[in-house]
Amino acid sequence: MPIEIKELHIKINVDEKAEATTTTASVDEAQIMRAISESVEQVVNIEKRKKER
Q1: What is the pTM of this model?
Q2: Across all residues in the chain, what is the average pLDDT?
């Protein structure tokens, strides 16, 4: 049974002072960017479905 996300709330805290450039930070950053892009894609799909109704 597929799960449908009807609402998605994203909360991000940005710390401008922390500018560490390590390999683990870049891997985590890539995963975060991937998760954000997937979330935005899901939100766009939800908005399209709302307009179709």
Answers
A1: 0.47
A2: 79
